[in-house]
Amino acid sequence: MRVRMNEAITEETVLLYGDDGKLGEVSLEDALQIARSRSMDLVEEWERPRPARAGAVVCRLFSLRKPVVWEGAVEPSANDERPGEPALDQALWFTTGHCEGRHYLLGNPHTFPGRLSAWCPSTRRGFSVSKSEIAECSNETTYFLKGYLSGQEPGVPSDEAGDLLPPDNLEYRAWLRATALFQETGSWNARFRICERCGARLLPSNSRSTCWDAHGPR
Question: Mean pLDDT for each consecutive 10-residue tract of the chain (218 residues)?
């Protein structure tokens, strides 16, 4: 999420917008002069990277806070009793065999598909968890997991040319089985693995070391 502003903009022509609407297509030099005259900053409207397009770069005039910071990027108050702890949604509780008591889902840890970030109040530490590790949970957590895992499903596989595989393709059918199992396990392992009992290739959403249905839990 990166934008260019002021002298970092290199295009010769700028399509300029201000608070009062479109100002028109002007040279970069004139756009910078307009910004300085108003004590404002000339900022490219779109984040990069983005597809290159012919024509003038679209810019707007802003009165930016300096140094530029993201919203909410402030230091915790010295009066906070527990600085650094996340705000917990008490409805999104669950239990796990790794630790006693209730824990709370937070969201996406941005590690592997299906993993969720969570918080343990007793140890005051965050951790990652998969659905298969959750024992008991609230109804709210159940539906949160359904929506979260649906949105985390890897896309339909494609061939070497980038075309989506047809429904009768064996890889496509394996993907269907894998995404269905993903809703049970919340785990997606991209490594090539085989069943320890029969040697069949394991689905990426199988969190066990043997075939999910053929050999039972292990």
Answer: 84 83 85 92 78 72 81 53 76 93 94 92 92 95 95 87 88 93 91 88 92 71
Tell which residue, 102, 27, 16, 19, has the closest CA to residue 63.
19
In a domain, 208, yes or no: yes
Q: How far apart are CA 84 and CA 191, in angstroms?
A: 35
Give CA–CA dist 179/199, Å, rounded.
21
Question: Where would I find the beta strands (DSSP E) of the chain?
Answer: 13-18, 21-27, 41-44, 57-62, 93-96, 99-107, 116-120, 125-129, 134-137
Domain of 36, CATH number, reads: 3.10.20.80
Give the number of other Cβ atoms within 10 Å of residue 113's Cβ: 19
pTM, rounded to two decimals: 0.59
